[in-house]
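Query protein
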Amino acid sequence: MKRLLKSIAVASTTICLGLGLSAAAFAKTDISFYFPIAVGGPITKIIDQYASDFNKDNPELNIVPVYAGTYQETIVKVLTAHKAGKPPAAGILLSTDTFTLVDEDAIVPVDGFVKTDADRAWLKGFFPAFMLNGQINNKTWGVPFQRSTVVMFWNKNLFKAAGLDPEKAPKTWQETIDMGKKLTQKDASGNVTQWGIQVPSSGFPYWLYQGFSTQSDAILANQDGTTVKFDDANAIAALQYWVDLSKKHNISPAGVVEWGTTPRDFLEGKAAMIWTTTGNLTNIRSNAKFDFGVAMLPEGKRRGSPTGGGNFFIFKKTSPAEQEGAYKFAKWLTQPERAAQWSIDTGYVAVSPAAYDTPALKKYTTDFPPALVARDQLPFAVAEFSTHDNQRVTKALNDGLQAALTGAKTPEQALKDAQVEATRLLRSYK
């Protein structure tokens, strides 16, 4: 019997070798990788190629991308899978989801995998501004991957037609108003055919608002994510300014402006200036039939923008082999050369200074200087708004913002009501 079993084993090995297989082929560790698709472009093809390239370099691992919808849909799917005991090994989620993921005990700190000098150098190599949302209680829970700031795009042709210098975007709130009035066009019936400026207020209204609030010198949440200051006088002034762009100055669409259609409105000449993520840079560059510029957001009391975008997280209820594989993939994804190419392909900010020293990104930014604007805005950037119970607290703020923009409430009342609700939700975390 022993001879028979030995003969079968030898025969099996011979067959495997004959087929070009090895023992390692049967020991692959699958690494499920949830990825949100939130910005237009051939991103799935890029991620698929990354997975293929990584798998070739690391035959013991098998990255399996799962495209989970928007950021909001992805966090829901991840937490549902976590509670069922079957989470992905890794995923890209909003950096602002960190408090939620830690509170749900869904992720592990990256620090636990950092063991060598090379590991420590890698972790210290990211832009400090991009680490703000990923570090809690002296632990690093996520590392930056597709990150952004809010930037302004302007149509140089429409500026020239309005008698404005096509090479100069507004630098201040007042200049935005003055230029916006010259850029807003109406037809014979009085209907607006071209808006001076368009700032989206669906999808991520809190994020766009945080541009205004930062410029108004208001910080909306404390670092511990336990307290908010929506009713701060500077925060109210910021929302009043946003509302006034449409209600008082008539240079921006009234009501809720769609996040997804704003870049298209810009490309179709319906808006002369827009605010959106730098993640739309490659999309706009590829599709604009006119000269355009990219600028830092205009200054109020100060210059500023929130950071934004997604971090790479490693999930807890997975095997040690999956977690180690996910960590290896995180390092691979964020190497300078790869981060540089990702920035070129998508428009997101490369996540480390070293990426901007690569030949590829040096050449790209020399040929296309607007790609440096979001990076150069980082010294003025603040952490994206995030708290414990983040989805419900953010919803309270978003509801208030939209109530003010639609005229259902005054900016002051809208933010005071949001403050009451957020304080209630955060009471147990203090």
Observations:
- Residues 2-18 form the longest helix (17 residues).
